[in-house]
Design brief:
The chain contains 2 helices and no strands. It is an all-alpha fold.
């Protein structure tokens, strides 16, 4: 698999752990999906900037 895939997965898991640990937020399934969509958009935005 691609190294960026594992890096993005690690960032996603770290954000979930940080939200749960720091803010005591328990992320629901819908919240997790929204977070996934938002992070996917951000990762695509940053990767498109690097390709130019």
């Amino acid at each position: 698999m691609n190294k960026t895939y594992f890096r993005h997965l690690a960032i996603f898991v770290a954000i979930l752990i940080a939200l749960n640990f720091l803010f005591q937020w328990h992320i629901s399934i819908i919240g997790s999906l929204l977070l996934t969509i938002g992070l996917n958009f951000a990762f695509n935005l940053f990767s498109n900037r690097r390709s130019y």
